[in-house]
Amino acid sequence: MKGKEIFLEEAETVSKSQRRRDALEIKSLALELINLSQSRLGQVPLDDTVRAAIMDARQIRSNVARKRQLQYVAKLLRRDDPAPILSALEKFDAEARELTGRQHRSESWRDFLLESGDAAISELMKHRPDTDTQAMRQLIRNAARETARNKAPASARNLFRLLREMDQKDALPAVPGKL
Q1: What whole-number distance in Å separates Cα of residue 146 and Cα of residue 23?
Q2: Which CATH superfamily, name and number, covers 13-78?
Q3: Cα-flanking dihedrals φ and ψ of residue 47, to 5°?
Q4: pLDDT tens across 27-74, in order?
Q5: Which residue from 42, 55, 130, 159 lies 20 to 30 Å from 67 (Cα-Cα)?
Q6: Residue 13 three-state SS
Q7: Is the domain defined by 96-169 classed in CATH 3.40.1160.10?
Q8: Which of 37, 38, 34 is nearest to 73 (CA)?
Q9: C-alpha to C-alpha distance for 167 and 116, rounded to whole angstroms
């Protein structure tokens, strides 16, 4: 009888509310895995049965059946430790944040270069001596002409691409005056 009491005490240490929150977390993880692209899903360390259940869930069009399959995927996920799956998903999020940061840095430098011209190029040269100043000056002049003539900003886009390529090689510094 004592063994049963010890088991009951251990079971009571986790509240029902906590078990429900954990179950909802696993369910949201299952939904995230189902909505993940095929290439990203291939990079996530999953059991074959879980992977098959996720693929089945993607094929289902009926809302009720899809919900039932989601519950099944969550049940399968509860069997194993979700830490490797969560770390893979966090890696995807970190890559997306890094890409967004690169985009914002490149946009900021493009805007700064278009507003300030040669002064901005000099500032960029201080941090990045590998800058192709002649190409940048030409793109800035062309962008100014396009803006004056109300044409499509092709040169501004090309300047952005050039800055993005530079940032991919080595991160651009923060734009002076903006933090």
Answers
A1: 57
A2: PSPTO4464-like domains (1.10.60.30)
A3: -65, 150
A4: 999 999 999 999 999 999 999 999 999 999 999 999 999 999 999 999
A5: 42
A6: coil
A7: no
A8: 34
A9: 20
